[in-house]
Every structure is written in C-alpha cells, then in structure tokens.
Amino acid sequence: MAKIDEVKAKVEEGKTKLVPGLVQEALDEGSAAEDILQAMVEGMEVVGEKFSTGEIFVPEMLIAAKAMAKGVDVLKPHMASDGATSLGTCIIGTVEGDLHDIGKNLVAMMVESAGFKMIDLGVDVTATKFVKAARENDNVKLVACSGLLTTTMPALKETVKQVKDSGLNVKVLVGGAPVTPEYAQQIGADGYAPDAGSAAVKAKELAR
Ligand code: B1M
After folding, report:
1. Residues near ligand 1 with C-beta < 6 Å?
2. pLDDT by residue (tens digit) across 95-114?
3. Checking CA distances to 104, which of 30, 71, 160, 195 falls within 20 to 30 Å?
4. How far is it, in rounded angstroms, from Cα 82 to Cα 80?
5. Nearest C-alpha neighbor of 7 from the set 103, 71, 85
6. ipTM for the whole complex
C-alpha cells in the first residue's frame, strides 16, 4: 500500500500514534503536503459515512479526529506560504453550539499562510464573542466563521448579523460542509469558501 493510502487508512482507524510517523514517511517519499492532507480529509469523509450508517459512534469519530489533528501538526511546516505578512488580523472560530474544529484549524492555517495575523477563538463561539474580539483587537479586517452542523446554521446567521450590526469595518467569511454560496449570500456574509485553500484566496480578496 502506498504511504499516502496508509495515512488515509490509519486516520480512518484513529491510529493517533501511527499517523504522524506515516505522514512524515509520505513526505519523505516525496508526496506533496496538499495531497497528504487531501488523503486525510478523505479518511474523515469515510468516518462520517460510517457514523451515518451506524457502523461507528461518537468516540470513534473523536479518535479519528485526533489522529488527523496529529497528522496536520506534521504537515503544518510544509504547507505553502506566500510570504506576505501584513494583510491585517483575522478572527476565526467555530460558531456557537458547534464543536468541530479540524476544518476551522485548516482554514486558520491557510489564511495565516496567506499573510494574516490569526486570532483563533476556538469552538462554540457566540456571536457576541466574535464581535468583542473584532472590536478589541488591532487592524481586524476579517471575521471567519466555520459551521459543520445544519443545527448550528442559525448561529452562523446570527454571527453575521451581529458583526454587521456592530458597525465595525470588517468583512465576514463563512464556510463549512453544510454552508452553500447561496446560504452565505442569504445571511449577508461577504464571502464564502468551500475549502481551506479557497478560504485563503477569498480572505485576501476581502481584505483588499
Ligand atoms: Co461530527 N458530525 N458530530 N463529530 N463529524 C459530522 C459533521 C456529520 C456530517 C457526520 C455524519 O452524520 N455523517 C454530522 C453532521 C450532520 C449535519 O448536521 N448535517 C455530525 C454530527 C451529527 C455530530 C454530532 C451531533 C454527533 C452526536 O453527538 N450524536 C456531534 C455534535 C457535537 C457538536 O458539535 N455540538 C458530533 C461530534 C463530533 C466529534 C466531536 C466526535 C468529532 C469532531 C472532533 C473535532 O473536530 N475536533 C466529529 C467528527 C470528526 C465529524 C466528521 C466525521 C468529520 C469532520 C471533519 O473534521 N472533517 C463529520 C463527517 C464529515 O465531515 N464527513 C462529522 C474533515 C475537515 C477537514 O472537513 O470540517 O468539512 P470540514 O472542513 C472543510 C470544509 O468544510 C471547509 O474547509 C475545510 C477543509 O478544507 N471549511 C471552511 C470548514 N470551515 C470553513 C470556514 C471557512 C471556509 C471553509 O471560512 C471561514
């Protein structure tokens, strides 16, 4: 089995101790960091499907997530950076009620690589907390909100509303599996991105 396929398989199995070493071996073999990341994302998709069909439960999902996070730690120094450093500050978080953070962490990593200073508020972040952070930090250009659950889409909407109502001169970028460009537009977000790479591109566009 190619090393990159082993990475995917071990993420699926939640082999936290094995994944970092396999990621390093895949890098050493010459696989691109972006391809290894994609393999891990695909592994998590399988995990999601198995959860949907009742083959696995929340603890297995959690362990797989931990394995992926360990793999991402190894990849981080190898992800592309365009060298820019002063595009402003970006406040990022997963919206209230939502504890998923892998996608948000990847977006944070890519937006940081694009040249933003990142302030990561973590998960389960209330709209009020997003606005407070945008108000209290210097040179905030962007608020980036991640949401993975259909049940937390109203929290995403509320966050966009509160940032807009605050009168602050910041743009709001939204994303996450259930978010569509149409929904983003409907709730008044300034931008939508389907994945971490395009979030970095969109962030630069919005901060101009
Ligand atoms: Co959860 N979970 N989960 N889960 N989980 C999903 C999302 C689910 C689709 C699984 C399924 O049923 N097939 C489902 C949601 C269904 C729905 O709402 N439609 C689900 C559910 C139901 C739940 C619970 C309710 C389960 C329960 O308790 N019964 C519960 C909710 C807890 C809560 O949040 N309140 C729950 C819990 C968990 C764990 C804690 C166990 C764990 C998360 C651990 C962690 O994040 N630290 C977990 C996991 C791991 C998943 C799956 C398997 C994987 C998520 C993931 O990390 N994907 C997931 C199934 C799936 O996604 N196929 C699932 C990899 C990641 C890289 O992708 O996060 O989509 P993603 O990010 C992408 C894009 O979406 C985008 O870029 C990223 C990569 O390029 N993106 C942005 C994300 N944010 C963005 C922001 C942007 C732009 C792009 O701009 C700001």
Report:
1. 41, 44-45, 47-48, 51-52, 58, 61-62, 64-65, 97-104, 106-107, 144-146, 148-151, 173-178, 193, 195-196, 199
2. 999 999 999 999 998 898 88
3. 30
4. 7
5. 71
6. 0.99
